[in-house]
Amino acid sequence: MASTQKQKKAAPARAKVRPAGFPTRQQVMDFITESDTPAGKREIAKAFGLKGQEKIALKALLKDMADEGLLDIGPARAFHKMGGVPKVTVLRIVDVDDTTLIATPERWEAEGQPAPRIRVVERGKRGALTIGDRILARTEEAGKGWLAHPMKKLAKATEMLLGVVEEMADGKLWLRPVDKRIRKDTPISDIGTAKKGDLVLAEPTGRPPRISARVTDILGDPFAPRSFSLIAIHKHGIPHVFPEAVEEEAVTASKLPLHEDKREDLRHLPIVAIDPVDARDHDDAVWAAPDEDPANEGGFKAIVAIADVSYYVRPGSALDREARKRGNSVYFPDLVVPMLPHQLSSDMCSLRAGQDRAAMACHLVIDAQGKVKSFRFSRAIIRVAAVLAYENAQAAIDGEQDNELLEPALKPLWACWALLRKAREKRDPLALDLPERRVVLDEWGKIVSVAVRERLDAHMLIEDYMIAANVAAAKALEAKKAPVMYRVHETPGRDKLVALKEYLATFDIDFALGQVIRPSTFNQLIKKVGESEEKEQIMTQILRSQTQAYYAPQNMGHFGLALGSYAHFTSPIRRYADLLVHRALVGAYDLELPAPKDKAIPDRSSLSQEDYENMGRVGEMISGHERRAMEAERETIDRYVAAFLSAHVGEVVKARITGVQNFGFFATVEGLGGDGLVPVSTLGAEHFFFDEAGKALQGVESGDRYTVGQRLELRLAEADPINGALRFELPDNPSPRGSPLKRDRTRPKIHRGRPTNIRHIGSSRGKHKKR
């Protein structure tokens, strides 16, 4: 009886089993379409109970169906409906539409049909996936499109190789990588139409250890003007060409009326923009005057006017989607990759002198102690009196240059700033005055100089006005319980503080871990150091102990600035986070203007429902884009520095050690920058201890010690502009190795493990312990 019941329960399952015998075309198609797992020849044969000669007949049937355009074959030899997507397949995320990730099949071989754009439905922790990721996903048709449900994130596939074609003495072609972290060249198996010296993109072919490169794209001459920036753009996948629809929308949006009658008119005020001499766009301008209110004696009124980008770039528009995809503008020495098309970024949204411009104005009332007593925001129309370089504004204040705006504009700005500075000193934010390099090029893209930017009072003045406006924006939105895209900088983690403590101990400086860590804690350390030689290296180490700032709708405060609430408001031309803050202010304070007559432009300029619901995900995306831009900018400057120094190979230069590892130490040329390696193998035959806590290499016999921050003279042995790499030697102990630009591939292989003359000491490995 029990057996009969079991049989009855099992009956429905048996009803789904395919009939025995050889299947028809339609049965094969139905099975493949309905299968929840990849359906290859083996799975199809098993489903229909095929054996022996029937399997051979099935193989022929599947080939016929593929030839007839009914089936296609995907990864793992699994079949799927032609023009469709396998039920389970590998996808690569290639785009973001609003906040929905878009993926395409990693392999797509349907001739004459573009690869489908598949919407990725994320579950669980949001923000785990981003552009460039590979996923194994289950797919399904939904209406006229496809959805993908991620099953797991896969390891990154081998990326395209970016490098320069190099010809050896034996006539063989090799690809020299532009990434200095890649120490191995790749033989070229297919050169295509490229020639020696070209900068190219190539795909790796073959299997380890016989990997070769097949050239797919020729990018041009790596030494031509702007090529260093193009290297970074291609390497990091930075979007740099605006789609035609976005360019067209920018032209349409730029023609929107300013609605002068509905904006606060500030054109009578001598508002000035103070920017770097090489600034490409001007999104902020400032004004200040003594407050005439007797209740605020000694205080000031100030206005920070910011380009009203939210008026032109509206939620859901093509401009908005492209801006979010970019996240920020990227600034290279020779070009800018803007977040917005030039029609807006360097024209209608740029606060040009003498031209009426739409602005979002932050009105501040500041008391005699520098505290912001009140603030309000308005949509305004302004006419900037002048755009001044920092150096010119400073020269005017110092009496070294005549300027008609000195009395009406500059002196009041400096007087008000004296109050803001007073409040800043009381707050005591983190004070790390580290040098910033500036690469100066001539009109042909050649390097004129590489120098450290001078830090002027004018820089700090603008910085403090911007900080005051950013704080006001965050607090204004909090007051309305509106969403805020905060700029978050968290307190340093314990691991980094422990490492800092160990490092400071090598200078006999105590650092108590039990204390409450504030920015002033680090400032006191810097004061203890005074103006000693170690000051810069200790400041660098303090900087490395800090967490990385990011964007998020949850407020965790800004540790470095010693502020409880902080949001970026002052640069919506070049940062998407600021644009979201502007939209939130428009909605919270009812600053919406009449809807555009052109129906191609969305009606509203305030936050959309999608903006509101996806603040967390967007914060993670634009934080990632910011890190991408910083790395690309830094690498490009390193390439320019290497190009500048390539004419000085063989010369002795003044340098400073910036990092120490067990394989050698890194040094930078004083006043120029650009890290280069001094391999430990070139330091002599004696053994060296690697002191991990002290970040130093020390000779056993000589006692010679090389530590972070130490100044010394080094001979420049190599300067490779292609990857930005430098190599140094001790002046009295040059290595026999030649320049990488004329390498001899017949030399014996250099093993990249730990050099034989290294021992390791450190807190985690014990003293004087060989490894």
Keywords:
5-stranded mixed barrel; 18 helices; alpha+beta; 771 residues; disordered N terminus; single chain; disordered C terminus; 35 strands
Annotation, overall tally of beta strands: 35
Percentage of β-strand residues: 25-35%
Uncertain regions spanning at least 5 consecutive residues: 1-19, 735-757, 759-771
Shape: globular
Helix % is 25-40%
Number of helices: 18
The order of strands across the largest sheet is 3-4-5-7-6
Describe this structure in words.
With 771 residues, the protein is an alpha+beta fold. It is 29% helix and 26% strand. The protein is built from 18 helices and 35 strands. It has a five-stranded mixed beta barrel with strand order 3-4-5-7-6. Strand 6 (134-142) and strand 7 (145-154) form a beta hairpin. Helix 6 (244-254) packs parallel to helix 9 (342-348). It is globular. The chain starts with a helix and ends with a strand. The model is unreliable at 1-19, 735-757 and 759-771 (pLDDT under 50).
